[in-house]
Amino acid sequence: MERVMTKDGSETLFNPSYRDYYHSTAGALAEARIKYIEPCRIKELAAISEVSLLDIGFGLGYNLGVALDEIMSAGGKLLAVSLEMDEDILSKLSGMDPKITSYHAIKKLAQKRYYSDEHANLRLIMGNAVQTIKEINMKFDAVFHDPFAPTRNPELWTKEFFRDAKRLMKPRAVLATYSCARHVRDNLRWAGFLVKDGPVFGRRGPSTIAINKQVAQLPE
Ligand SMILES: C[S@@+](CC[C@H](N)C(=O)[O-])C[C@H]1O[C@@H](n2cnc3c(N)ncnc32)[C@H](O)[C@@H]1O
Questions:
Q1: At residue 51, what are phi and psi to the nearest 5 degrees?
Q2: 3-state DSSP of the chain
Q3: pLDDT tens digits, 106-147
Q4: In order of start, what are the domains of the chain with their CATH numbers?
Q5: Over the stretch 184-205, which tens digit does the pLDDT of each residue have?
Q6: How high is the pLDDT of residue 216?
Q7: Which of 58, 60, 145, 164 to mutate to test the pocket of ligand 1 (most atoms within 8 A of CB)?
Q8: Ligand 1 contacts CB of residue 80 (under 6 A)
Q9: What ipTM, to 2 d.p.?
Q10: CA of 85 to the centre of ligand 1 (A)
Q11: Ligand 1, pocket-test mutation among 64, 156, 161, most atoms within 8 A of CB
Q12: How far is CA 2 from CA 139, 177, 213, in A?
């Protein structure tokens, strides 16, 4: 896979089968922070209690690693389940060196499918997330939804997949995803989410933040 330097100085890879990058070429680590960590309020959650995170599309583990850094600097703890189906991408992690303090933990997770220390309890489930998501039996504070583009990776952008993700979310949890495509947002609404614009980064449109519609209508 071709290595590509992104505009914030962090490297990503290009996947020739999907004809897509693993991260925004505007900045791989900046994307993790701006489109996932900040909208899901990881720092704020870490100040209150342990943070539980569902990481859909583990890839190179950048989103997860940046989240873990944030939580460690707040003195908190991360409980995360990551979903991935490509064994090949896991073998690429050893050659990557992003500016993520906790990346050694992410590399170990990719090797062993499990990692645990005083700040993290991480599990990586291999297989098609359409099926593996149905086997999870816990509730999360945040969902990082980061497959390849909807046109190239459609099975993870369906109504049914979003319904399965919502089933695993705590009432006030946030799902963040980078696409704002009309059919993606329609599918999220069908699944019972209230959809809002997320930050704009690296493309013209905003990303998407989705929260439980019923809970959003209740007072705080
Ligand atoms: C855009 S990359 C994720 C980048 C990653 N979040 C990171 O921070 O490095 C999308 C990932 O989703 C995975 N993927 C695509 N379809 C999948 C499926 N049906 N089940 C599980 N993983 C899938 C791909 O193998 C790829 O690693």
A1: -105, 125
A2: CEEEECCCCCEEEEECCCCEECCCCCCHHHHHHHHHHCCCCHHHHHHHCCEEEEEECCCCCHHHHHHHHHHHHCCCCEEEEEEECCHHHHHHHHHCCCCCCCHHHHHHHHHHCEEECCCEEEEEEECCHHHHHHHCCCCEEEEEECCCCCCCCHHHCCHHHHHHHHHCEEEEEEEEECCCCHHHHHHHHHCCEEEEEEEECCCCCEEEEEEEHHHHCCCC
A3: 999 999 999 999 999 999 999 999 999 999 999 999 999 999
A4: 30-216 (3.40.50.150)
A5: 999 999 999 999 998 888 888 8
A6: 76
A7: 58
A8: no
A9: 0.99
A10: 7
A11: 156
A12: 36, 24, 41
Cβ-contact 176, 209 below 8 angstroms: yes
How far from 143 is each of 32, 58, 194, CA to CA, in Å?
13, 12, 15
Tell the residue nearest (CA) to atom 11 of ligand 1.
57
What percentage of the chain carries pLDDT values higher than 90? 89
Burial of 153 (0-12, 13-18, 19+ CB in 10 A): middle
15 lines ligand 1 (CB under 6 A): no
